[in-house]
Write a structure and sequence with these properties.
Layout lengths: L2 E7 L7 E4 L4 E5 L6 H13 L18 E8 L4 E7 L5 E4 L2 E2 L12 E4 L5 H4 L2 H15 L1 H25 L8 H37 L6 E6 L7 H7 L1 H7 L10 E6 L2 E2 H4 L2 H23 L4 E5 L7 H10 L5 E5 L2 H7 L5 E6 L2 E2 L1
Parallel strand pairs: 3-13, 3-14, 8-12, 12-13
Antiparallel strand pairs: 1-2, 1-4, 4-5, 5-6, 6-7, 9-10, 10-11, 14-15
Helix pairs in contact: 3-4, 4-5, 5-6, 5-9
Length: 355
C-alpha cells in the first residue's frame, strides 16, 4: 500500500496544496511548531477518521476558517476525502461516494503511527492501552468497530439510566436490558482482544528479544475486567453500587494489558529505556500484524521518534521499515545526513509551507 498524493485545505497551519509522495521514505524536516506533525495527522485522519493526538475535529481546522479538507489518493487509485466543519458533522467519501458510517473508512488506508507520545501505552493508565488495542483492531475489522460502537452506546444508555434511577425518575428493573446488551457485545469484543493480545505477545516478544540481543524478555498479557460469562451476573450483583456511583463497574471498558519485561511489570518497575523498547516492540508488532492479516504493508508515520531511541534501536527500527512507505519528521539537516536513504524524498516545512 502506498500513498500517491496528499491534498490539504484549511488543515491546522498547513498551507493549502497537493503533495506527491515517494513510494519509499518521505522526510519532513524543519524546526518545531512548523507543521510537520500536522501533515502526519492529516494522513492519519484519512486512515482512521481521528487524530492520533486525540484532538477534537474542530481543533484540526485552521483557526481562521470554518472548515477543513484532506484528500489522499493511493497507488491503487483509492481516493479518501475527509471534510471537517466547525460546528458541523464530519463527512467522509471514498472514491467520491459519501459513506453512511465512519466505520466504512477503516481498512482503506492502513497506517501505523509512532511518536514519543506512544510511551503512554506503557507508562499511563489502562485507557491508553485499550485505545491501542481498539485502533489496531478497528483497522483490521469493521465488524469489530461496529461491535465497539454498539457496546459504548449501550454503556452510555445504562449510565444515563443509573442517573435517572438515583434521581428516582426511572425503575431499576429496566437495567437488565442494558446488562444483557453489555454482556452480548462485550463477549465479542473480548474474543477479538484476546486473540489480538496473543498474537501481539508472540510477535512483540520475538522482536523485543532481537532488539535487546536476548538480554530481555517481553510478555504481553491481556487483563480482562471479567470473563464474558460472568459479566451479566456481576452487573446484577453490583446494581446498588453502580446506582450510587452512577457508573458501570464491570465490562470491557475496564480491560487492560500488562507489559512484562524480565518477569516484572514494565509500567511500574521498568526503566525509561525498557519502557521505550517495549513500546517500540509493540508498534513494530502492530505493523507485522497488519502485514499478516491484510497481506499489505501499512504506511508508517514516524514523528520525531528516532531522537527518543539510542543508536542500536534507531538502526533496528530503520532496518525493520524497509519495504514500506514511510513518512517521517526530522528536525534538521544533521538528522537527514544520519538517517535518510539516498533515494528519500525530502520536504522542508516552514510556517506550514511544504517545499
Amino acid at each position: 500500500m502506498r500513498i500517491h498524493t496528499v491534498c490539504v485545505t484549511g488543515f491546522r497551519n498547513l498551507q493549502d496544496g497537493e503533495h506527491e509522495l515517494f513510494p519509499g521514505v518521505n522526510i519532513l524536516f524543519g524546526d518545531n511548531a512548523q507543521g510537520k506533525t500536522n501533515f502526519l495527522e492529516a494522513v492519519y485522519v484519512c486512515s482512521t477518521g481521528r487524530s492520533q493526538r486525540g484532538s477534537a475535529d474542530r481543533e484540526m481546522i485552521n483557526h481562521d476558517l470554518s472548515e477543513s479538507r484532506v484528500r489522499v489518493e493511493t497507488d491503487d487509485s483509492t481516493l479518501i476525502d475527509i471534510h471537517l466543519q466547525r460546528g458541523g458533522k464530519k463527512s467522509v467519501a471514498i472514491n467520491h461516494l459519501p459513506t453512511k458510517r465512519l466505520g466504512d473508512l477503516f481498512g482503506n488506508l492502513l497506517t501505523v503511527s509512532f511518536s514519543p507520545e506512544d510511551l503512554r501505552i506503557i507508562k499511563q493508565g489502562p485507557k491508553e492501552r485499550r485505545r491501542f488495542m481498539d485502533m489496531e483492531l478497528c483497522q483490521l475489522s469493521r465488524i469489530y468497530y461496529s461491535e465497539l460502537l454498539s457496546y459504548y452506546r449501550a454503556l452510555r444508555q445504562r449510565n444515563n439510566l443509573l442517573r435517572q434511577i438515583k434521581q428516582e425518575r426511572a425503575e431499576r428493573a429496566t437495567l437488565f436490558i442494558w446488562n444483557s446488551q453489555l454482556a452480548t457485545h462485550g463477549a465479542k469484543i473480548f474474543a477479538r482482544r484476546k486473540e489480538f493480545c496473543e498474537l501481539l505477545n508472540n510477535i512483540a516478544g520475538r522482536l523485543h528479544a532481537a532488539i535487546t540481543n536476548h538480554n530481555e524478555s517481553l510478555q504481553v498479557i491481556y487483563k480482562p475486567d471479567a470473563a464474558p460469562n460472568d459479566v451479566e451476573e456481576r452487573l446484577n450483583a453490583n446494581t446498588e453500587r453502580d446506582i450510587t456511583r452512577v457508573s458501570t463497574s464491570v465490562g470491557i471498558h475496564r480491560d487492560d494489558i500488562e507489559f512484562i519485561v524480565n518477569d516484572t511489570n514494565c509500567r511500574v518497575y521498568g526503566s525509561q529505556g525498557q519502557q521505550r523498547t517495549a513500546a517500540l516492540s509493540a508498534k513494530l508488532a502492530e505493523m507485522e500484524i497488519i502485514k499478516q492479516t491484510k497481506n499489505k504493508n501499512p504506511i508508517l508515520l514516524l514523528d520525531d521518534v528516532l531522537s527518543e531511541l539510542d543508536i542500536n534501536r534507531q538502526r533496528y527500527l530503520l532496518d525493520s521499515i524497509s519495504g514500506s512507505q514511510v513518512i517521517m519528521t526530522l528536525t534538521g539537516m544533521e538528522d537527514i545526513k544520519r538517517f535518510a536513504p539516498a533515494d528519500a524524498r525530502i520536504m522542508a516545512v516552514k510556517q506550514g509551507s511544504i517545499t
